[in-house]
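User: Hi! I'm a student and our assignment asks us to look at how structure tokens line up with a sequence. Could you show me two examples?

Assistant: Happy to help. In each example below, the sequence comes first and the structure tokens follow. Example one:
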Amino acid sequence: MAGTKTLYEMAKVLRSKNSGPFELTLDIIFDDQEKYRIVKEANIINEDMICRLYNITLEKILNIVFFDAAMAIKITIMRPVVSGGIAETDVYGAQQHAPLINIRVPQP
């Protein structure tokens, strides 16, 4: 194995956003088919990883979709606090992608 790279180094876009007041969507978008393939085949973007990164239970993950045509991964999770609710720290959900940045991806 030739080492690892961070997801931040491999993806063109890492972002998060509201998917309604009760959900967050995390997007990982690539501009290179090979980088997308490496991440997908490494099988590190999975329910276990998302539960650990976001400190949530499996029931809070609504879906993880690998969209090959767009070289993208879309993850939708339940928000810990409703958007705009008491104790909310990110009303737009725009800062919730940070835990994805340092995921280590094994390189072939």
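Example two works the same way, sequence first and then tokens:
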Amino acid sequence: MGKIDLHIHTTASDGRFSPSEIVQQAQSNGMEIIAITDHDALEGIWEALQAAEAYPWLTIIPGVEINTDVPNGEVHILGYFIDYLNKELQDVLRKLRSSRVERAKKMVDKLKRLNVNIDMERVQQIAGNGTIGRPHIAEAILEKKYISNFKEAFTRYIGRGGPAYVEREKITPVEAVKLVIRAGGLPVFGHPLTCENPEAMSSELKPAGLAGMEVYYNGYTEKDINTLLKIAKKYDLIPTGGSDYHGIDANSETMMGNVTVPAEDVQRFILAARNSKR
């Protein structure tokens, strides 16, 4: 099996490259399977599927990444093999995207009070037609040279707990898992180590229908992976993985295809998707 990446963002949310450009990169990089998993957005999927028709060896998995709320942080639920035309899914995501705009305005206001003067209009220009997210704000801060690299925007200003951080409207992890299932997809616990207690969360989400856990992820050490593999085995979750590629900063992010997901786990994941459609 060739190279696999199950976590990629496009301009439909907060990635730098359009879905067509992502597909072009994927075929140039020798990818066999990629998943388009934009934040709270489905608009990039159709374009990616159309672009991939020129490369029959490349499989595009329709996906989404849904940001959800928990008391001490947030949990990201990845949905794979979804029906991206599902009306309920589209309606919920549209509401979540709307809340992102108001959140961005509040963050820009907070930044100005910290003497970091960026304009909301510029943030919207950077986002283009995509869903506004913190990476767009980070780019605007970097553009004005208030920081020396993209990551610094999060560590100094807009990361959780930072002086310009603002909460936004979210749904619960259980609601997101059930929403993905109703849209015909397989729900996966995204980058679980950002969660305070990934095992407790897995225990809560499994009865709701959680199918997998993102075990292989950018920056995860062998110890991290082994810890997550034990949790995945305990709750019968399929290990998945991906780069979380945004294409924004080559110096600080993992490139597409540079996270290895064992072939047997990918095959198990695809089989589970086929069985769920029967």
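Here is something you could point out in your write-up. The beta strands are 3-8, 31-36, 59-70, 73-80, 186-190, 212-217, 238-242.
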